[in-house]
UniProtKB/TrEMBL annotation:
Organism expressing this protein natively: Camelina sativa (False flax)
Gene that encodes the chain: LOC104724337
Keyword Metal-binding: no
Subcellular location: Nucleus
Lineage: Eukaryota, Viridiplantae, Streptophyta, Embryophyta, Tracheophyta
Protein keywords: Coiled coil, Growth regulation, Nucleus, Transcription, Transcription regulation
Protein name per the record: Transcription factor PRE1
């Protein structure tokens, strides 16, 4: 375990205090749909919050990919010089 600590400390990222970590986990808990819907009294570990955060980010990435694909398909079905096509292209940028 001491090797893990020293490798973390030697990284170029600044050290985060325990209070900062608690604050960040609390903020994540508030914005995560799965965890945010639970009662305040429910205890959720920091590792669970981080795991749910990763899952939520993956879900959002899939949603972005799906929406991009749908916009691309929609762009193929409209006149490329139309105002609609311009809006779709701007969304895809």
């Amino acid at each position: 375990m001491s090797n893990r600590r020293s490798s973390r400390q030697s990284s170029s990222a600044p050290r985060i205090s325990d209070d900062q970590m608690i604050d960040l986990v609390t903020k994540l808990r508030q914005i995560l749909p799965e965890i945010g819907q639970r009662r305040r009294s429910d205890k959720v570990s920091a590792s669970k919050v981080l795991q749910e955060t990763c899952n939520y980010i993956r879900s959002l990435n899939r949603e972005v990919d799906n929406l991009s694909e749908r916009l691309s398909q929609l762009l193929e079905s409209v006149d490329e010089d139309s105002p609609e096509a311009a809006v779709i292209r701007s969304l895809l940028m």
